[in-house]
Amino acid sequence: MLIGFAAAPAAAANAGVELPYDRGDMTFIDDGDVFKVCDTKADGHGVTGTLRGINHLTGKIVNLKSWDDGGDSGCDGGNYDVRGNSAHDMVLCWHGGGPCKVSRVFKENE
């Protein structure tokens, strides 16, 4: 499956993406460069959230970091230093199948 970047209007640096049917969500909090991935439905399937960016040498989209959540209480995640004017997005996938959801493109300096 090919998922690409799409232009987005300028907005606050915090960003998020949600799966349908309340299956899960992924959030970026600019203050501290914190990413949080939450499996929000007790359906036996977890979720994976992936941070992506552009490789400026090749122009290709690359996966920078992934976090999984499911089967435990609370959310998972961690820190990743999102820098300057580089475009990023997040992809959230449910382990039960179906299409992944992609966040808006965001930059730290928005």
Write the layout of secondary structure elements.
Elements: E1 15-18, E2 24-29, E3 34-39, E4 47-54, E5 61-69, E6 76-79, E7 88-94, E8 101-102
Antiparallel strand pairs: 1-2, 2-3, 3-6, 4-5, 4-7, 7-8
Structure description:
By secondary structure, the chain is mainly beta. It has one domain (15-102). The chain is 0% helix and 42% strand. The strands form 2 sheets. Strands 1-2-3-6 form a 4-stranded antiparallel β-sheet, with no helix packed on it. Strands 5-4-7-8 form a 4-stranded antiparallel β-sheet, with no helix packed on it. Strand 1 (15-18) and strand 2 (24-29) form a beta hairpin. 29% of the residues are buried. Residues 7-12 have low confidence and may be disordered.
